[in-house]
Write a structure and sequence with these properties.
Largest interface: A-B, 38 and 35 residues
Helix content of chain B: over 70%
Radius of gyration of chain B: 22 Å
Number of helices of chain A: 19
Strand content of chain A: under 5%
Number of helices of chain B: 21
Strand content of chain B: under 5%
Radius of gyration of chain A: 21 Å
Largest sheet of chain B: 2 strands, antiparallel
Oligomer: heterodimer
Shape of chain A: globular
Structural class of chain B: mainly alpha
Strand order of the largest sheet of chain A: 1-2
Distance between the termini of chain B: 26 Å
Number of strands of chain A: 2
Distance between the termini of chain A: 29 Å
Number of strands of chain B: 2
Largest sheet of chain A: 2 strands, antiparallel
């Protein structure tokens, strides 16, 4: 087997095997488990880096075998796959470090880290899937492996959240399966390819194809938190902070958004989807979700719930970018896949730090936290400013590209949506920033803990700082060739100019 | 070579049954472990022989059908023989540790177990209707005995109810066989298929009777009443055998009858009607599974639901294009195999969980995810296959059935298939949910031996892996009757 076929498998297996080893380890061997976790994360990062370089150079990494008559299991690394794989590989490393610190002294860590690794393996599979069938395989695996993480605490509230999570996501899975099976019946096995499959399809099929598109988007929209399918997401906030960070920044919501990108570009083909009139309703839905999520976020007093509604809003930026017909909009949407991941994971890390160090869960308890935890608060502030779209941070790059895309696609109303959403972002983030820095401490912290010199546990302290550095750098260096922006441009060029 | 394999397959179980009658439980266990090894090797040998050389027809000791025992060996039959070897070995190994040797009646487990295995092999390989009947009776009677091994009053009641059901089923089936024999003077399935015409009401009646009898034995809704008590109160390894293999035997005969004779003796109404009963089983069985307070009852009602899928074979192969029919047959076969593996894994794992918390109730499972993560994980993996989520064998089966339904324009079965998956998720997640609760006051858990935990895991992994290697498995399954038919024709020509 050649190296080009081996690497995608290795990327998948690194966390799959880590999961098996971790499940096999006894609960008490914490050091060994941490070591396995970190080694697997580093190995995956290395593999993904090599593959990204290869894809940039034009190497074709793919492997496939026939799984069922007429259906193959196919892993393939193209530029879009590497965008998502790179995001999950990088953020997995930091979330693992963070989670080790966060869950210190708590029970059931073997189970937690086992499913955590399984979850990342599924995300990797979603990223590297070479056809719709393989995508679905890992998409459902992701659902199943995140359930134990959502209900990890075993309280009534988390079990309730887990139940709703499962109802939403498995319901979405049914719609997705029906869509995929139907499409398979019409057109056979569909590998993702950059121009889609239905260019010049028989007009008699257009009705069916539209219906299938609706099914696919409904199935994927559940995970992407598209209105009105977003209900599970704020509830899932009862999970431990690293899970929220991973679910919201990387794995689950992004898998949904990524799937929508795949369906629109690589199955239907952007031209065909546009010609069929499928993009505009989707754009409106995404725009509505953007505004709706932001407005709901305004009223949340719980910090993590506010971040959750912000996620609902922000993920729809990606979908909006996809539906703006033209390469510029695509660049904005794709780059936001990465930018939103980095910013949101920083925010969740910080929220977790406040909860673990000070016992603070609500926004109005944060008064004066900036003085007690300056580094975490700087990270939170920068990530919040990035979300609002303050230059030169990551969010600004996204919004600029989306705005340019909207102009190019002659959908000026989208710019209005972006502006209103930025205002709303400011309206729900700036009060938090204000409380952090400018309000005096009103009451003693609900449950303060101290760890040595640093303001919090070292494993909790560093990950948000590193991701903050990243979100500054991806903004500052957006114009250079190592930035996510230039990678998104590479994808868009390959997609629109085959 | 083949004759040794065939003889081994049918006569080792019978010999072992007789021998183990003379022994107590512990001695029987040693003997049976040896027998299981032989059976597993022989089954594997036959599978390899068929996979490399194709199927064949075999008359035991050269005696032809009316007097002797004629066997037909094709890809489907050997796959089921191998499946039986896998599941029965797993259950036998499990039972050897699980059952309590201090109860004197437990020593009858081994003879009954071996009679059951002999009967199962007889059904998979049988070529004529009377031998199929005899094998089926052997299975039914030993299965009833195994249920009664539970020893409690509830087990005896369930066994008796089971006995009445299977006897009634056999009677109705035999009536159909007699009708066919009266009309055609032969009992060979291929022989009847060769002469039967389209418009023969007596033969159609016979088919209907045989199918009705077999449906009762397979516990098709609404004739499923006997199954949950029998499978629920039996000892866990017995439940695993019953749900995994026994109900499949009667279904297998029904399917063979339908595929040979259905195109001429069946009708659209009959096919759709049987499919509708299957759909009813999927929905009603799943709903009842969701409502059960006892863990093993949940698993047992889940069998009622999963058996429902099998009966979609009838509408999906009747009057459809040949490729569609093939898709449906492949899907149903995968469903049989994956359900056998997953359900036996689930029963064995459920048995471990019950041992551990010392209660049969679902709501007593709180905190077990701490103490028995391995068994719970096996239960979960098996559950994934039952929910037919990827990459399990259950998913592969559902995918093929979805394709068959869509291609033949019977979209209503699509609804049943998708709804069935959701309902299965509902009852499986209800169990998970109970195990994640952390409010249990006492930490009083018993830890079953490792070997009891390993066996369900292996079965669950097989069910999972089946989805990944479905293509090669299906290619062996598809190995044709043609060779068998040719040999049969040759034999018929000879004086």
């Amino acid at each position: 087997m050649s190296l080009s076929a081996l690497l995608p498998i290795l990327a998948l297996l690194s966390s799959l095997l880590a999961a098996v080893v971790i499940f096999a380890l006894p609960e008490s061997s914490h050091r060994l488990r941490t070591l396995v976790n970190l080694l697997a994360a580093l190995l995956k990062l290395g593999v993904v880096a090599v593959m990204t370089w290869g894809v940039f150079r034009g190497v074709d990494f793919s492997v496939s075998f026939t799984m069922l008559p007429g259906v193959s299991f196919m892993l393939r690394a193209d530029a879009l796959a590497m965008l998502f794989a790179g995001l999950s590989a990088v953020l997995w490393l930091f979330t693992t470090i963070y989670a080790v610190g966060y869950l210190e002294d708590s029970p059931n860590r073997s189970r937690f880290f086992g499913f955590f690794s399984l979850c990342v393996a599924s995300t990797m599979g979603v990223a590297l899937a070479g056809n719709l069938f393989t995508f679905f395989l890992f998409y459902e695996m992701l659902t199943l492996s995140t359930y134990p993480l959502v209900v990890h605490r075993g309280t009534d509230k988390s079990l309730q959240a887990g139940r709703n999570y499962i109802i939403y996501t498995l319901g979405g899975g049914v719609a997705l399966l029906l869509g995929i099976a139907w499409l398979h019946g019409l057109a056979g096995d569909l590998p993702f390819q950059e121009t889609g499959h239905f260019q010049g399809a028989d007009p008699a099929l257009h009705g069916q194809l539209t219906l299938i598109f609706v099914l696919l988007i409904a199935g994927l929209g559940v995970k992407a938190g598209l209105f009105p399918l977003h209900g599970w997401l704020p509830q899932a906030m009862v999970a431990p902070a690293p899970v929220s960070a991973l679910l919201h920044a990387v794995a689950v919501v992004k898998a949904g958004a990524f799937g929508i990108v795949r369906v629109v570009y690589d199955i239907y083909g952007i031209d065909f989807a546009y010609a069929l009139g499928l993009l505009e309703p989707l754009a409106w839905l995404a725009a509505f979700t953007i505004i709706y999520g932001s407005v709901r976020a305004l009223w949340q007093t719980d910090l993590k719930r506010r971040l959750a509604f912000s996620t609902i809003s922000q993920v729809s930026y990606i979908i909006l970018g996809v539906t703006l017909f033209g390469p510029l909009g695509a660049v904005g949407g794709l780059v936001h896949l990465l930018h939103q991941g980095i910013m949101k994971i920083t925010l969740f890390f910080c929220a977790g730090n406040y909860a673990e160090t000070l016992g603070v869960h609500r926004v109005d308890e944060l008064d004066g936290a900036g003085a007690r935890m300056p580094a975490t608060s700087v990270a939170f502030t920068l990530a919040a400013l990035g979300m609002i779209g303050v230059p030169p941070l990551a969010g600004f790059v996204t919004k600029w590209a989306l705005g340019a895309g909207a102009l190019a696609a002659e959908m000026e109303w989208a710019i209005l949506v972006l502006l209103v959403s930025s205002l709303l972002n400011a309206a729900y983030f700036l009060p938090i920033v204000y409380r952090l820095w400018f309000c005096p401490i009103a009451a003693p912290w609900p449950a303060e803990r101290r760890w040595g010199r640093l303001e919090t546990h070292a494993w909790l302290f560093w990950p948000p700082l590193v991701t903050t550095l990243m979100l500054v750098l991806v903004g500052l260096l957006a114009a250079t060739f190592v930035s996510p922006l230039s990678w998104a441009q590479l994808i868009a060029v390959r997609m629109y100019l085959p | 070579m083949n004759q040794w394999l065939m003889a081994g397959l049918l006569f080792t179980p019978l010999a072992w049954a007789a021998l183990s009658l003379l022994l107590d439980f512990r001695q029987g266990r040693w003997l049976s472990w040896l027998g299981m090894l032989i059976q597993a090797l022989v089954s594997l040998g036959l599978w390899v022989a068929v996979a490399s050389n194709g199927g064949f027809y075999y008359a035991l000791a050269g005696w032809e059908a009316p007097l002797g025992i004629a066997l037909r060996v094709d890809g489907l039959a050997v796959t089921f023989v191998l499946l039986t070897a896998a599941v029965a070995t797993a259950c036998g190994l499990h039972a050897g540790v699980y059952l309590d040797p201090s109860k004197s009646w437990q020593r009858y487990f081994w003879p009954l177990f071996w009679f059951l295995w002999a009967g199962l092999n007889g059904v998979w390989l049988g070529a004529d209707l009377f031998n199929l009947y005899v094998s089926l009776e052997l299975i039914s009677l030993s299965a009833v005995g195994l249920v009664a091994l539970g020893g409690e009053a509830a087990a005896l009641r369930a066994a008796l109810r089971y006995l009445f059901a299977v006897l009634l089923g056999s009677l109705v089936y035999l009536l159909g066989v007699a009708l066919l024999y009266g009309q055609f003077g032969t009992l060979s399935l291929t022989g009847i298929a060769a002469v039967v015409g389209a418009d023969e009401p007596a033969a159609a009646m016979a088919l209907l009777l045989m199918l009705a009898g077999l449906a009762l034995k397979t516990a098709l809704f609404p004739l499923h009443g006997w199954l949950p008590p029998a499978h629920g109160v039996a000892k866990s390894p017995v439940s695993a055998l019953l749900s995994g293999l026994v109900v499949k035997a009667s279904f297998y005969i029904a399917a063979r009858l339908w595929l040979e004779l259905g195109d001429r003796l069946g009708s659209h109404t009959l096919a759709q009607g049987i499919g509708a009963l299957g759909a009813g089983a999927v929905i009603w069985g799943s709903w009842l599974a969701f409502r059960q307070p006892h863990l093993k009852q949940v698993v047992a009602y889940s069998s009622v639901a999963q058996i429902g899928y099998l009966f979609l074979l009838f509408p999906l192969t009747f009057a459809v294009a040949e490729p569609v029919s093939r898709l449906a047959q492949q899907g149903i076969t995968l469903q049989v195999v994956s359900h056998a593996l997953a359900k036996s894994a689930m029963f064995l794992a459920a048995g471990n969980l019950i041992l551990s918390v010392r209660s049969k109730r679902v709501d007593a499972l709180g905190g077990v995810s701490h103490y028995l993560p391995f068994s719970l994980f096996s239960f979960g993996l098996a559950g994934v296959s039952l929910m037919s989520l990827p990459p399990t064998g259950g998913f592969a089966a559902k995918w093929l059935l979805l394709q068959a339904s869509l291609a033949s324009g019977q979209w209503w079965w699509v609804v049943v298939l998708l709804l069935g998956g959701v309902l299965a998720a509902a009852y499986v997640f209800r169990i998970y949910r109970a195990t994640f609760l952390e409010d249990r006051a006492s930490d009083d858990f018993y830890h079953p031996p490792r070997s009891l935990e390993a066996i369900p895991m292996l079965l669950a992994l097989l069910a999972l892996g089946l989805g990944l290697v479905a293509e090669p498995v299906l290619s062996v399954l598809a190995l044709p009757f043609e060779v068998a038919a040719e040999v049969a024709a040759d034999v018929a020509v000879q004086p």
